Amino acid sequence: MTDFTCIKKYQPKPLVGAIELHRPEALNALSLQLMIELVQAVEAYDKNPDIRCIVIHGSAKAFAAGADIKEMADAGTIEMLERDQFARWERIRQCKTPLIAAVSGFALGGGCELTMHCDMIVASETAQFGQPEINLGAMPGAGGTQRLTRAIGKALAMEMVLTGRMMGAAEALRTGLVNRVVPVEGYLNEAFALAAEVASKAPISARLAKEAVLKAFSTTLEGGLEFERKNFYMLFASEDQKEGMAAFVEKRKPIWKGK
């Protein structure tokens, strides 16, 4: 069993895997060690057929307040290139299992980017999203300029990136950045309930559907429709598709096998 020092890994519900970012002394700043452990945990869940949805969360005070600035303040260009830290972010993006971010408190810089690597976001009323890298003489580097723009549009994304201002939970909901906002005392349970609902569906269907939705951001409408149809047809080779449609006809609850 892997020993983690910066995260906690547990199962809050059947078929749901949870990962808690746990660096309370640094508001869960995304250090190199934390990112290594996070990727290991995500990939382990992704390979586990008994995990059908993953929830990533921090504390009530902070999801993650950003990258660990102390680790990069004195780095040069070549060192940053050789460090290749964004390769780990790409591995999270490649996760096939649906990902949900449960956010309370600060989700800034890399923390905000991590929430946007997830497929859905449940926020507490205290959640604050932002890309404040401009205040450090830098800019987002883990997808913030791209994913934030796709989520909330050019004008708002440009304002947040160029001024560093934060967006509260209510505005995040209004602009489409998050799925729902709940009181802080219930945000984790809300995320786990959403994860359990996703996990109750046919797992192969969920994975292929996630893949098709994400494809919409990297291709044309025509290319996306073609990709969607191929995934749709592919599901007719699965036992779950036969079971799901048979259960519908027979008016009973389907039993998914993930095959």
Can you walk through the features of this model?
The chain is α/β, with parallel strands linked by helices. The protein has 2 domains: 7-199, 2-enoyl-CoA Hydratase, Chain A, domain 1 (Alpha-Beta Complex); 203-250, Lyase 2-enoyl-coa Hydratase, Chain  A, domain 2 (Orthogonal Bundle), CATH 1.10.12. It contains 11 helices and 10 strands. The chain has helices at residues 32-47, 77-83, 86-93, 110-117, 144-152, 154-163, 169-175, 187-199, 203-215, 221-234, 239-250, and strands at residues 7-13, 16-21, 53-57, 62-64, 99-103, 106-108, 120-124, 128-130, 167-168, 180-182. It has a 6-stranded mixed β-sheet, with helices on both faces. Strand 2, helix 1 and strand 3 form a beta-alpha-beta unit. Helix 1 (32-47) packs parallel to helix 3 and helix 9 runs antiparallel to helix 10 (221-234).
In the predicted model, the low-confidence regions spanning at least 5 consecutive residues are none
Q: What is the CATH first-level class name of the largest domain?
A: Alpha Beta
CATH topology of the largest domain: 2-enoyl-CoA Hydratase, Chain A, domain 1
C-alpha termini separation: 27 Å
What is the H level of CATH, i.e. the homologous superfamily of the largest domain? 2-enoyl-CoA Hydratase, Chain A, domain 1
**Portion in strands:** 15-25%
Global mean pLDDT: 94
Quick rundown:
By secondary structure, the protein is an alpha/beta fold. It has helices at residues 32-47, 77-83, 86-93, 110-117, 144-152, 154-163, 169-175, 187-199, 203-215, 221-234, 239-250; strands spanning 7-13, 16-21, 53-57, 62-64, 99-103, 106-108, 120-124, 128-130, 167-168, 180-182.
